[in-house]
Amino acid sequence: MHHQTGSILVLEDQPLIALDLEELLSGAGFDNLTLLSSCAEAESWLKSNRPDAAILDINLRDGECTEVAHILAARSIPFIIHSGNLKAEADSVFLRGTWIAKPAQPHALLTALHISLAASEAARSD
Question: Can you list the domains of the chain with their CATH numbers?
């Protein structure tokens, strides 16, 4: 198995989906994962951590994670929106992410993640 570098923040409040994502990502070699289920946890975690990419469900236990998306965008951290929400109804900050509608095809999610990480790496080496 190829080891992937890069830390990934996963925001998902449905335990089964979070578990699926964790299995998918660790199966693909991502072992630096942080899984959180609320906006408050994520905002707090981001104060002292910087992931290389994030996968966000818009609706978490304590509401929409708009503030989290703003923090990621401000810090140029690429993120993937993995949500059942409609793009048209979402806050405009979410449009800065890559949209993968739920339920996602695993390869679609992994491809988007690899592209995000490549972009993140390119931005860091500028």
Answer: 8-120 (3.40.50.2300)
